[in-house]
Amino acid sequence: MSKKEIIKLLEKIAVYMELKGENTFKVSAYRKAAQSLETDERPLDEIDDVTELKGIGKGVGEVINEYREQGKSTTLEALQDEVPAGLIPLLKIQGLGSKKIAKLYKELGIDSKDALQQACEAGKVSELSGFAKKTEQNILEAVKALGAKKDRYPIDQIAGLSLEIDSYLSEIEAIDQFNVAGSFRRFKESSKDIDYIISTDDPETVQQALLEIPNKVKEVAIGHTKISLELSYDDETIGVDFRLIEPSAYYHTLQHFTGSKDHNIRIRQLAKERNEKISEYGIEQQNGELIQYQSEAEIYEHYGVNWIAPAMREDGSEFDKSLTNILQLDDINGDLHMHTTFSDGAFSIEDMVKANIEKGYQYMVITDHSQSLKVANGLSVEQLLRQNEEIKTLNDKYDEIDIYSGIEMDILPNGELDYSDEVLAQLDYVIAAIHQSFNQPQEEIMKRLENACKNPYVRHIAHPTGRIIGKRPGYEPDIDKLCEMAEATNTILEINANPKRLDLNAEVVRKHPNIRLTINTDAHHVDHLEFMEYGVATAQKGFVHKERVINTLSREDFKDFIENNIKLKK
DNA sequence: GCCGTTTTCGGCCCGACTGTTTTCAGTCG
Fold it and tell me: What sequence ranges are listed for the domain Polymerase/histidinol phosphatase N-terminal (predicted)?
């Protein structure tokens, strides 16, 4: 029995209870219990008494114990007898919540998506009190669209749409300032929609301008403070909420709508303890006076904590941790993984050097693809050595930065590495990576990774799972074992910062606090150097301290690491 | 259902928008 199974059970019970019309606090008690289990770092075997966890008392404790011991839950079974399973997908319909669904079921016997569609088409729904023609019409549309529209979009797609919106908003003069909020600002791997906070003294003008945004597909809700649209992007239709707020309340609104929900609940509880009320408009004190700060940092300081980076604002546990040494973007002093026109990059070495200097980096490593990766124009030994010479010349030319010669070397399907040790010995920095034969059995994949870890020249493993978010799962290594191997051999694991990858993910780096990390953009274009913030955010989600990250070293220490630390490998 | 150095009962975060009301419930974030 795994913890995940119990979490799933509790969440399922919560959904059924919700549809049954149980007391909302009882429902959320089950959700809180699930979350408390999820937040606890220990595996299930190490938790003897679940009721020791905050939010799990006698009632939920018994449900969990029954499930642990007997693999079944009489509580869930009883609920399933009462509530038809066909009601659950209806919760996804915009505008339909548990109460309305319960009413549809009780009064019309609607127990599935199809039954709901038929009832709408027959005009039965609008005969119920609380429902009318407009509601019926909206439900009908939503039922038909159910399944057609995705409920979450990968971060890389959201990021693309967000850039388009950014450039549109920056042209609107009536806007004082704006920022993205919500789950995208928190760097979640996927988001349901995008939220924007816009400060303005002239909401009417901004509202008009927003309604004229070119890729608008649908107006969902138009209010004074909130405008919800659906925009088309990349063959998808993605929801975007714009919140308009006067400048004095801007940072409170930004904080509020950045969330997460649980993060905000913790803040509101802190407020309540002081007899204050915090909302998107400010902090209302007991005497009715409204405090409005002009930065997020001041809002957090008001409650006795330092500013918490959005990526870490998740389940509320961030308030209980020491965050002082957590990695920040400006701790990164160099990018160790990037490509040039020698293989499949779009820019020359010198262009990349200039771009890295522009970023303020103190060192960088050029790591093109190796000879076997023909599709990416991998380098023969001769090309590699020629590139090596070119890098030395550039290194002499640019004093501002240390340029190291490296390679992103393929780990071949048979487990061998793509160059001999004699060749690797001539490079400053060797990355190993899997780019082919993803479908091998896990055992063989692990053999390949083990060979790479054990090689004395391999410093780090790039994108260790090979996943592409929302597209492919990767080659699915035994990640716990890989982390052990990396630790035992002093091999560094990468957080690939490309928003398509984010690999390793936050969960893994959080679970394995002893592995050393490096965060790199894998840039194939000078613009890709900007991906670093996604990698840093991923590390923050894993509560990674900067000491764990090799490319936070100073210029001198990194030089020392390149020249002397290779012997650290066992 | 959970929780508690004011509480073992009475709270549990707060506000906007919609559609239906004729002062508000339901939904959403």
Answer: 334-413
User: How many Å apart are CA A484 and CA A452, to the nearest integer?
Assistant: 14
CA distance A165 to A558: 39
Q: Which of A39, A55, A83 is the last residue of a domain?
A: A83
CB A74 within 7 Å, strand B:
no
Q: In chain A, which residues from 260 to 289 place their CB closer than 7 Å to nucleic acid strand B?
A: 261, 264-265, 268-269, 271-272, 277-281, 284
As for how many domains chain A has, the answer is: 5
pLDDT bucket at A534, cuts 50 / 70 / 90: very high
Query: How many Å is the Cα radius of gyration of chain A?
Result: 27
Mean pLDDT of chain A: 91
At A522 the pLDDT is 96
- Does residue A324 belong to any structural domain of this protein? no
Residues A53 and A130 in one domain: no
| Type of residue at A338 | M
* Shared domain check, A469 and A363: yes
Q: Are A566 and A457 in contact (CB under 8 A)?
A: yes
> Each residue of A400-409: pLDDT tens digit?
999 999 999 9
**A61 CB and strand B closer than 7 A:** yes
Lookup: nucleotide whose C1' is closest to A241 CA: B29
pLDDT tens figures, A85-115:
888 888 888 788 888 888 888 888 888 888 8
**Boundary-marking domain end, from A55, A83, A111:** A83
Q: What is the reported pLDDT for A430?
A: 96
On chain B, which bases lie within 7 A of the protein's CB atoms? 1-3, 11-21, 25-29
